[in-house]
């Protein structure tokens, strides 16, 4: 089979082969890559066959081809003979398949005939119908164009009439009377609104798609501008639109300027009819906000301030001064003129701010009132802004104020100093601004309520307020530092307290008009007053020398503490007066600081009060060194301890209390000392035992001396006033006066409430026990007289009665155990129990009441 490989090649071409034989060339040609490669692959198996085919002659080639054909025929015959059964089966299958193919061909022919008939019935009518539909759509489009054109012409003629009405209203308004002027203006405004609505509809017809072409498979909207009848009216429509826009803008400006809601509503209705309402409102808000921002910027322009200040100078000064350039900072001489120019420009700025704010609220009010007749939604909803116009204006105003206040303070030391120093004045301008717009807006700025808009605007002053508060705090701190600068050699006193309180009150008063600023200043004052307490605490002398009452003069340590106490008392007293001058919220902020000062004052005074009481108690305790039980000895005057007490009271009055300038507190302190002295004196003399008649006379003499000393202690005080005498003491003085007759009462009268009405029950009980042989309570417990008196001073009356009652029971048990004769003593015990019973009954009656 290798001999026939050339003929088995898929690229074999008989013509090329024959031509190669005739030409004597090899086949396949060596110039072809593919054929050369194929020849090479064949050359490995056949060394002499086809490689030399080109060199053979034609006869040989023909003989070979003949031989090859015969050989192939023989092979085919042998293969058919070998496989005849299989081939016969294939022939039979092919014969049966041909019959089936005939029936299929018949069915296909019938199907083709049916398709031709169906095409005649469906496709041809469809094409005709499609052509008719296209023709109908063109007719509809033409009809729609005619309809729109007709509507346009009708609207254009209507617009001509409306523009004529506008023109006639404009021409006739000057000639009409005042009574008809408003009617003419109303007619003209209505004509403008109608013209705007007509123009809006015309624009929709010219620019919008036709109704007939709204389906998804339209030919596209046809513009009416190409129609001659429409094009003829187009210039008039554009001119009318321009004129209506101009009239509408003038009406808006007039309405905002005069705050005429009728004119403003008509202009907004016109803008809505024109379809430019959102754009108009946005532009108005932008213009108003920009005008305010430009005015704020101009108010802080140093070059303009300089020119204005120079223009106000006297002519002589202006002619003599050399002005090579405009100054950006004033001199010490021109600073007042610059400040006056700045405040004048700020006042003008706030006036313009108020006008623009009122215009914004007027615009917003009309936008809320006017409604879309189709959707019934307000114009405010129609404009679809990010926020309400008023909120947008306040936001832009707050940003502008914050920016220019901050930048101006940073750029100019003059502006910063003027604004910080005059911060209350600047804040008053804000108050005037809020008051002016409150009539037209819902803005509120009072002590009890502040609108969010006012807080938003006032935040722009945050840096100035911080600097103002720092300046205020520095002023207070400097005053406090100066008050304590003398140290222990020159401690603060009444003068320094007056200065401090005056400055604190002035600072609060200067901010009183603003509810927020006054609270901030009050916090500042409270912080500074806390530092007063700290400085006083550090300066206070806590040594025993500050409490020494040895005399003859007060110690320097005591004088220092007394001066500090005077300073603290006068400060707290004068600061407390602020409660009636300011509202509760402000005073509440400084009240804790005032209470701290009062506590510090008490810390300074309390040790001295206790020292005075201890000194008086120690002197009165010396009464028990006197023998009041002597018989037949007449008193030769008051006892030594009373004379010592009189001298000590004189020292306390002159050298101790005289160093304090504490007003009513000093008088109350004197009264408390006198009452304490009387109570302790009565307790001491009530337990003096034994007691004879001469002893009673001595006690009476001592009472007279004590009364004289106390009266002198009160009456000779330079702080005394009318009525400050012993009679004003009340119960203590009446008890002192009632002690004399108690000494000389009969035994049976000791238990009578009427006979001992002004005396404390414990005094009566003591005197009963002194007359008897029953031991006094301190003797039963082994106490000293001073300890017992101190115990009575620290406990209640009920506890002292219980102590007496217990002592009586204890004495009775001991006497019974020892078998002592108690017949005489029992009389006094019964008197004591009667007094105790009366006391308890009176106490229960008072409790029930």
From TrEMBL:
Residues 42-51, 165-182 have a biased composition (Polar residues). Residues 6-159 form the Conserved oligomeric Golgi complex subunit 5 N-terminal domain. The keyword Coiled coil applies. One of its GO terms (cellular component) is Golgi membrane. It is found in: Golgi apparatus membrane. Residues 17-52, 165-184 are annotated as: Disordered. It is a peripheral membrane protein. One of its GO terms (biological process) is intra-Golgi vesicle-mediated transport. Keywords: Coiled coil, Golgi apparatus, Membrane. InterPro entries: Cog5 (IPR019465), COG5_helical (IPR048485), COG5_N (IPR049176). It comes from the Eukaryota. It holds the Pfam family COG5_C. Residues 224-434 form the Conserved oligomeric Golgi complex subunit 5 helical domain. Residues 101-149 form a coiled coil. This is Conserved oligomeric Golgi complex subunit 5. It comes from Ephemerocybe angulata.
